Amino acid sequence: MRARKHIAVIGLCLLLAATNRFQPVSSAQNASASISDGIFNEEQAVRGAEQYRARCASCHSNDLRGNSNSPSLLGMSFMFVWEGRSLGELYDKMRREMPTDQPGSLTEQAYADVLAFILASNEFPAGAAELIADQSALDRITISSQ
User: Fold this and answer.
1) Is the torsion defined by CA of 54, 56, 61, 62 positive or negative?
2) Which own/partner pairs from 103-106 qualify as long-range (CB within 8 Å, at least 24 positions apart)?
C-alpha cells in the first residue's frame, strides 16, 4: 500500500513537471515573461531617471527623443527598433555600448534602473518588484506593445 502511494506521488510530480507547472520561481522576471506585467517599480524608475539625466540625456535628450546622432528611446520610434526583441538584448546593448564615451561604466543595477526608466517613459506599467540585473531572466521578456 505504501509503495503505491509513493508511485502515485512520483507520477504526479512527473506529470506536473512535464506540463511546466512544477518549476521553482526565483524572481519576478521568471514568473512573468511579459513586459506589461509590472516588471519594475516606480522607485526604480525614479532612480533610473536620475542616472539617465546624468549619463544619457546629453545624447538621447532630456525627453528621450534622441537627435540626429542618437536614437529615440520613446514611443513608436523606440518600438520600431525594439519590438519583438528581448529586454535582455536591450540591457546587454546598454551595458556594452553606453554611455558612448565610457561604455560599461555604470553598475549593473544602474543599467537596470535606466531600463526601468525607459520602460516607465514608454508607459509600461510599474509593479511591486524591481527589475533585476539578470541577463538570463531579461532574455525571457519580449518587448511588445501588447
Assistant:
1) negative
2) 105/55, 106/51, 106/55
CATH classification at residue 113: 1.10.760.10
Instruction: Provide the terminal-to-terminal Cα distance of the chain, rounded to the nearest Å.
Output: 52
Domain that holds residue 78: 29-139
Per-residue pLDDT reduced to its tens digit, 50-92:
999 999 999 999 999 999 999 999 999 999 999 999 999 999 9
> Could you please report the per-residue DSSP string of 55-107?
HTHHHH-TTS---SSS---SHHHHHHHHTTSBHHHHHHHHHHH-STTSTT-S-
Tally of structural domains, the chain: 1
Peptide bond into 71 cis (omega under 30): no
Phi, psi of 86 (to 5 degrees): -85, 155
* Model pLDDT for residues 22-33, shown as the tens digit of each residue: 333 334 444 446
Distance of CA 89 to the CA centre of its chain: 9
- Are 92 and 110 in contact by the 8 Å Cβ rule? The answer is no
